[in-house]
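During the first year of the project, the team set up a workflow for recording each protein of interest as an amino acid sequence followed immediately by a discrete structure-token representation. This format lets reviewers and collaborators read both layers of information side by side without switching files. As required by the reporting guidelines, we include two representative entries from the current panel. The first entry is reproduced here exactly as it appears in our internal archive.
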Amino acid sequence: MKEFFKWFSDNPELSNKPWLILGKGPSFAKYNQFNLNDYHLLSLNHVVREMPVKMAHIIDLDVFEDCAEAILNNAEYLIMPWFPHINNRARNRTLSEHCNKHSTLQQLSNSGRLISYNLSSAVTHHPGWPVVHVKYFSAEAALGLLTGAGVKKIRSLGIDGGNQYSNDFSDLKDKTLLANNRNTFDEQFQEIARIIFKTGVDFSPLDLPSPIRVFVATTEDQMLSTKVLEYSIKKNSSMSVEVIPLHTTGIEIPLPDKLENRPRTPFSFQRFLIPQLNQYQGRAIYLDSDMQVFHDIKKLWSLPFDGADILAVGEPKETGRKPQFSVMLLNCESLGWDISNIVNNLNEGQLNYETLMYEMGVAKNIKAKIDPAWNSLERYEKGLTSLIHYTDMNTQPWVSKEHPLGYLWFRDLFEAIDAGFITEDYIQNHLKLGYVRPSLGYQVTHKIEDPLLLPGKARQLDKNYKAPFTRLHKHQGSPWIGKHHYLRKFGRRLYKNAFMAGLINLALGLIKFTRRLIRYVRFQ
């Protein structure tokens, strides 16, 4: 019996092409739209019955029995765990023992076509063999096998979310569909994202452009928040992602003549560089740097344009805010933006700041099709929020201790440090340059997730701190639809502050009363 990783390394021809993993999901039906000869093919479970493949990967013995004849005819090699599953559960009989009872397995083994490996679901493992992790579905194991063998580029078809098979497998719907009692195939994406992040493999569905390209408006003093954003994107993404900080592109942005038309921040106009940077081809995602992602950004990347130049997030009317266009999916082929031309139009009066930034007047067809969960302004609901936007510069977690959701941002920061994605030297440099509040260093050193729990001596470190944004020039524009909306927000903030102050005073009063009561009881 050959062990997978040793066998793979002994056969260099297995690395001369990218690999394509084929599952039973709806996108499998697209396979005839692509030249499959460009890939080595790895089939999952019953897919082997549909076409010749280099490797058939099967975890369950009952699936093998269903496909035994197809495996003999269509698969060059069969890959199975050392302890195969039966009825979706790992058992204690080895693959070698099963060979003694299954003539087809024995035939494959005798001809050198049966390859095995240790799967994490087994109680025990073959001594000396690496263990491949699986949590939900077999696609995770297949991806783990290929990446563990050093494969750098992998594509997929039929590894989809939801709860459907391709029509090619309609006969299996009542037999194997989610037979492991999972609710949805979406659950596999969490593990796929983990493998991509850990290995750096170039992985994506074959029917989507890859990698996802995310352009982030930022400056050097915002790079720690940009790195946390990048980490939050990549740890959740089930396909490869490239994150590009826009201030590093080397393209100079001219300033408009009139002060009221000038960008509010050094990065406000950076978004207009994206089509040029993307060679006016394909799609691109735009984000601000003061954000944090909680869901798979592939959901945003794969949205259809349906004739639009831009997909944006619709801002609910009740918030009173003008559209921000801070989360966008751009169709770079239809956006001929040139930043010099845009600034010239501002100077000549064909545009003003309001129409440019709040109406995106340089695009012809804008559709607000992105779920508002992808631009949640200072709000978070577990399981529902896809992206938090820390819009209030005064309370952003890296410059303020007071943000009530700061613990979420620091949770990802600590994870990024533990993963080696962000170094403590990088943080120390930002502290030295004054890009982040001094107490952040104490918080990182002592692993205090919630900044609201910082002790007094740490809070005192920020006494004279001024965040970089305080150096920005004042701007006459307003992000609010009308003055009444701003006044309503201002009133809510005053009420909230007064309410919190009242609660604090009440709590202090109760503490004083309790202390007095204790003293009274002691002296009675």
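The second entry, processed by the same pipeline in the following quarter, appears below.
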Amino acid sequence: MTSNPYALRGAPGCLVAAALVLATVSARAQPAPPPGEPDDDVELTVPATPASTATPPSSAAPPPSAAPPSSAPPPTPASATPPASAAPPASAPAPDPSSAPAPAGALATTSTAGAPATPSTADARSPAGRVGLPTTTAPAARSDAPPSLVAEGSNYVRPIRRGLAWWGFVQAQYQRNDLSEDQLAPGGEPLNQDEFSLRRARLRIDHGWENAAATLEMDASTLGGVRIGPRRAEASLLYRGAEDDTITPRLVLTAGITDLPFGAEIGESQRDRVFMERSIGSTALFPSEADIGVKLWGAYRFLNYAVAVVNGQPLFDAAFPRDPVAAKDIVGRVGARAPVDPSLVVEGGVSFWNGTGFSPGRDATKASVTWIDDNNNGFAEPHELQGVTGSAAVPSQTFRRWALGLDLGASKRTALGVSRLSGEVAVASNLDRALLVSDPILSGADVRQLVLSVAAVQQITDYGLVGFRAAYYDPNSDVFEQRAGVSHIKDESFWVLSPTLGLTLSHGRLVAQYDVVADQLARDDRGVPTNAKNNQLTLRLQVDL
């Protein structure tokens, strides 16, 4: 509704105004509806563009119940709830979508009939958002919350709002690892891993218009040294269709440093993620969530899509390395999210990656002579001198790498809180770029990877959460080794079990996670691979700006 219903002209207008006054008095005289039931007798529509609102003639005074001038916001009755189709002004925070059904193309609402009511804390994010669970609503704060409290939401279903907004968060943590030693590795790198660190400090600015948007997000961390650099820098052109800015645009063209559209974990907001980091397999294949390139994405009704063409070089040490390959990598995901009933939302998607890897080869070496002092007498003797044959240079080569992924998830609102169950599986070839880096040119054969992850999170009222994740990663399914002259299949797989417990407040969250790691990285007295003791405890305090 964009016209002013109180813009009256002439005598008929006076009669209509009097009728409206009587109707208003009668409505106020009626008792308020019981809590939890919608009030169908009161409705308020906020015009999307105040300039289009009609005004009464200057010769006629407005009736007592007329709306105030456009320069002042209209008074909102305590029992009135703005409909979801109304678009808020750019200068005002978005209304709380939990009290109205989401329009087509939006995410399903979290607060529904028969579900527990959302707390009335005015300046807080929703309880599910505080826990880190998908709120299944378009990311929006309460009606009087500052823009910095507007949740980021999923990267696959993300409205682009008009106007200027900013937000950020700080994650400080302490971790203790069983592998920690008070020693230095060859080269001078400390082996101690028991330390306090700044995991993330983010500050993000968004500015949206009708058909364009820009985002700049900076990140600071002390892991591996102090690092400050861009986390996201996006320039976007978009087509909203007939939807307002609380709905994901139907078509968005984004260029710059942008998130990779593969799987559910990468699409998760790092601010709202319950677990400390992504699963071990996801981190191995995708060391960073972002890359430089161009992305086409959007959503329509329950469907969402994203396809990107990127360099294929992950973010290391707060800088993207120069791409050594002319061919670019293509990555994409097609997903769906739909409400099964008022309290249950099911979502999922399929992802793909197809690109070109790079093997740097090696330089030529000259023939040389080495001396090994066998008897430790400090004198070079003929039998202690050995010749080393020179080698020719190995030229750089490229190789194909690919991946296919499937992710599924479901969120259920109960009397205890939001329950979330999710799973993800991916198969890949030559795509490990962080843990056991794939180079089929040097190894002489393609390397296959398998990624599995299953997670469950339960919100406990508005102030707690408990979660558990089981992650499996096999970086090479076709590797052999010899022990005592006999060939054996070498198991290089990892199992990581991560129980999590957290306390959630309106502006912060304190989470503890213990990672139980099972691998075959150690050797026993017989030289047989065995589990290495490398479990880790992490305590993290997060506060939103």
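For the second entry, the following points were noted during internal review. The chain has a mean pLDDT of 77. The two ends are 35 Å apart (CA to CA). Both points are flagged for discussion at the upcoming steering committee meeting.
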